[in-house]
Amino acid sequence: MSKVAVLGYGTVGSGVVKVLDDNKEEVNKSAGQEIELKYILDLRDFENDPHEKQIVHDVNVILDDPEIDVICETMGGVDFPYEVTKKALSKGKSVCTSNKDLVAAHGPELVQIAKENGCAYLFEASVGGGIPILRTLRTALRHEKIDSITGILNGTTNYILTKMNRDHADFSTVLKEAQDKGYAERNPESDIEGYDASRKTAILSSLISGMYVKYEDIDKTGITAITQEDFAYAKALGMSIKLLGMIKKNNAGFFTMVSPFLIHQENPLASVDDVYNAIVVHSNMLGNTMYYGKGAGKEATASAVVADLVELAANKGKFIDVNLNDIKAELSDTGNFVHRFFVRCKDKSREQAMELFGANIQVVETNKVFGEFAFLTDLISEKDFKNKYAVLQDTKGFLREL
Ligand code: HSE
Questions:
Q1: CA-CA-CA-CA dihedral for 72, 76, 78, 80, to nearest 10
Q2: Of 61, 114, 213, 393, which cross-links 202 as Cys (Cβ 3.0–4.6 Å)?
């Protein structure tokens, strides 16, 4: 038998409790023992909730209880969860979390504390919501040499982009819907400005390199500048617009980037819609594999947390090596990253655009936008592109092509 506690009875925490209730038999079978939920930490009272009696307000009740083997940290934020997780791991209690902010900020240190205290720190739900991507990298793909990961890693922005494209919906209305569905972060800027996807990209980069990639070092662009005009051009090109997290190994190390990309319809990532995430991993023996599922939301995220809980309960007293180490990774300069770019400028800049980018550019036309000149460049490095774009007059924005 393992006794467990859930910290935070919000969207994900209440989802974890739901999974433990509704799938009790399956959870126990999977853990090879009975899992008993002993405490739920929350500041609030939950009168008439079936778990009312398990609610505690003082985290020390949980930390000081020698019967607690596993803690699910589903609080959100960084400072308080960080302190609590350190204390729990120092006492030999294993911790699993959905908290990517905490993993991205302090993951290697927390894994080290777990190692020193004969317990484990797992964070499956921190990337890709319910998709078991971290466990797959740690087990099924551990023997592979992974050279790239490209993924739709944020459910909220994928939901927004899908609705803007399909229903021509307005940005703020769709964001509100995503918040109501429990997809968005407490501060949705984190989603729409690309911070959340950067944290997930940093976690993935760290795990495939065995080093520590700081999310602040990732070159990042969010989706706030994307307009209905961009979707009209994308449609004319037979492409979708998706926010991608990208990791590409090269001779010197690896590039990482988070940015909206134009994706050709034939690419399976182009048809990943709504709150779904998808992650394409390329490795040397296996080639491409793609992992697809709900990237946010109560039950999907909670299911990933419970997968960790089960593994931790089945491995009590053991460290689990997740390949996250406190060795700073040196990222390659994204200035040398090469793609084609889609550029919009006012029609009067047409000649200048052709002089700068060459006569071989692919002109893009749509009957939905007037007075503009839009085109796709040849393959060009980020550095060269930005130098040219900086001098192009009357620009209206650009997108990268996958
Ligand atoms: N806000 C996040 C998203 C939640 O939309 O993907 C899951 O990490």
A1: -70
A2: 213
